[in-house]
Hints:
The protein has 430 residues and is mainly beta.
Amino acid sequence: MHTFTRGWVVGVVxxxxxxxxxxxxxxxxxxxxxxxxxxxxxFLDCVNVSCDFDFFRTEITFVDYVRxxxxxxxxxxxxxxxxxGGGENYTLSFIGLGRFAGVDHLLHYVSRVxxxxxxxxxxxxxxIKLGLVHYVAQTSVASELxxxxxxxxxxxSPTAPVHDPWNFWYMSTNVSLYSSGEQLTNSTDVYGxxxxxxxxxxxxxxxxxxxxxSRSRYTFSDGTEYIDKTRTFGVTAYAVKSLTPxxxxxxxxxxxxxxxxxxxxxxxxGPAVEYNIFxxxxxxRRQFTFNYGVGVTxxxxxxxxxxxxLQETLPTQSxxxxxxxxxxxxxxxxxxxxxxxxxxxxxxxxxxxxxLNLRVFKxxxxxxxxxxxxxHDQIYLPxxxxxxxxxxVRRSQLATSYSYYLSFGLSxxxxxxxxxxxxxxxxxxY
Length: 430
């Protein structure tokens, strides 16, 4: 029986190899026509935004796409930042390389919160076409292009001022329900959020709230059950005033509850100032900010803390240094945050966070992210020791002097850099 099975498997594999070889030979006999020799080679690079590469390759066919920046004539770097209306402001940086070295320019595309993903990708594709024409005009492909102007809808002038009945206010709400289970366990989680914001060049106002309720049931081998419930809610409001291209000032208020942190109620309020070494107008590509804030925090606890407190009011201060760079070589975000209770300077927390995506050489990139925290501010820990069940399900925060998170990855790709063909057959099967 085993001999028959092995023989059947070998026969099937051999047949598949013959069929694949036949297809390979046919493919070699009918090569796909490539782009003209002087076509513009484009390296498409999307940082912190989602791009539909297959769509762009099928819609923009007058250039040659390559997988390595060093082989490109144009490096198209697309970055984005959220807008006050809930949409996305995309910055398209066209960076000339090789024969187009020094020929750089910027374009912008703004998507609305009501856009479908198809509307957004079509808007981006139109903007990409517009930016690439400058380079393609200097090649033999230019004679194949046609430039047209779309008529404004309703005959209105595209430069006419837009009437905004909401006066820049934007609201968003979300409610989600999750449920899963097996014979011995089940869990349910309900989450909701509401955000209202108004963003202009002069002011940034935001009011947001969210809640999270979860319940999990565990049945042990002796028939006993353990039920874990956690409740969390939070409301945050802040106002920020733009002072100069580099300076801003604001104030923030917060109210929250968390069973995990033994907080029945947290109330905090205080002002802050921020300085950006680079103008805020360049925020989609680079930022280097210093933020300092002071405030007062009132705490009420579910259980008596290790310092024998059921409530307390404490002055606080915080400092945040953050750097963000989205460049042709990759992207990097790094921040250092220090928080402290002013009544006892030994009660503090230091947080170092880094995220790096770096292209080392052709086809090879490195990804790293992680944070390290020095923890000396757990004034909320309840008196007594946690049960074994509470430790296993992480129902409450445990005493610690540090915490960390690390992630590291490598990627390497090689092979043809000129294949612009899109074929999605069987994509959902693999």
